[in-house]
Please model this.
Amino acid sequence: MPSTILYGGASRGRHLLDHLVRYALIAAIVTVFAAFSAAAPTFLAPANLQSILVNNFTLLAIVAIAMTFAVSAGGIDLSVGTAIDFASFTFVSLVLAGQPVPLAVLAGIASGALVGVFNAALIAGIGISPFLATLGTLFIGRSLQQLLTNGGNPVYLPPAGVPEAFRFIGHGTVFGIPFPLVVVFLVIVGSGVALSKTRFGRVVTAIGIQTSVARYSGVAVPAHIAVTYVLTGAVAAIAGLILTSTVTVYIPSSGNAFLLNAIGATFIGTTLSPLGRPNIPGTVLGVLLLSIVANGLLLTGLNFYWQQVGTGLLIFVVLSISFINQKAKRRA
Model:
């Protein structure tokens, strides 16, 4: 009888710990939000909260969602910045040439998807590991941008000649809501449905968990991996269009600034899954956490390099809690 009681108590304690670990990400968001609300008087100002969503959250969320597709398939994409940059360059070039903005948008997304096609050929076609393949694409993309811009010169759009439709992408509103937020909402919903509610998403997840089992089950693994990387490039390209419209300039290799945070947000988001798998809701919350931290540390006046240290430590803490819990589960 006492052993039963002890076992039951241990079981309930373990169940409680699992819930605490699973929702550690949400607890972290609440904690840092409360901390910065107390430490920075302007943190809760409506203008600052909007800035967090529009300036910190939107672009990183789109890039991190693109990364989530690749990680869900058991890989990674170090070239999402290249897809962003190629989309930006194509977009700006066509607008400068006087082409219609809708055509420039489609061409920009196609450019990002083309980066994904190149990755797909290397990974699904030749069999190169995702890390090495996308790392190579990153280097090639950076060099091509230098060549296309005479050594890395920015491509500016003349303020007087920017079409209104171009400005709308980065600065417009829909029923009072900034258009970039509308776009990121659609990307979140569409990607969430694709990964969790469709056969394609379930197959990609199965490939990420056990590639060999998926292959023996008759799944066309190379084809699904190829489509995943094309989607990754196309989604990342959307961030390039919004970025370009916001600043009205193309800066070579600027997309790489999102890479590390996108990886961090994606893996932070895995803590929301009972199986530790990439998922869109978790990725979005991971981006929100990093966005709050970046904004809050800036308001408190910390040096930029200390901001990076703080972000890195936060990623370590959230992921360490999850990994320690998973190891304890395997030993139990």
